[in-house]
Amino acid sequence: MRINIKDIPVTGKHYEFDLAQELLELDITLIQTPHFQGTMFRSEEDVRVQGRIQTSTQVFCHRCLEPFIYQVSADLELFYKPQPTRQQLADEEIPVSELGILYYRDQTLDLTEALRDTILLEIPVKLLCKPDCQGLCAHCGANKNVMFCNCQQNQPAAKNPFAEFFEKNRQ
């Protein structure tokens, strides 16, 4: 989503829009179109964005391998400044306080990349369909959330390459 800096007043302006999934270039399946709502403030050439991005995606549980829908909802606060010239970049070292600042060029603010990154960062590395997911049985492969299996829990799996190791450590 591109916004002209001149359209943002100092007092702030509320924005609400859906993002085209094609623009985000994500390698995940989104079930719901990403929706942004927030307020943008301008102070001379600097822009502050406060808002929320929401969407949902279909993922697979890392314990039971069942598909489920994960809701993504993230608050964000972004700071934008005009893109520095090559001469400015060569002459100045970027201070630590400015490491989180994003840049715009040609008086146009493009939120697409920042919103894409926010969505990706909100998806956890280990996805669980529910906090107490039991996962799959190591012996028969049954989904323990759906059915009870009669496997002996203290017996190592027959096809486990570490079965001999487990037996030696039990004695």
Task: Summarize the structure in words.
The protein has helices spanning 21-24, 86-91, 112-122, 163-170; strands at 2-4, 13-18, 30-43, 46-60, 67-82, 102-104, 108-110. The chain is of the alpha+beta class and 171 residues long. A 5-stranded mixed sheet has the order 2-3-4-5-6, covered by helices on one side.
Tag the structure with descriptive keywords:
171 residues; alpha+beta; 5-stranded mixed β-sheet; two-stranded antiparallel sheet; elongated
Topology record:
Layout: E1 2-4, E2 13-18, H1 21-24, E3 30-43, E4 46-60, E5 67-82, H2 86-91, E6 102-104, E7 108-110, H3 112-122, H4 163-170
Parallel strand pairs: 5-6
Antiparallel strand pairs: 1-7, 2-3, 3-4, 4-5
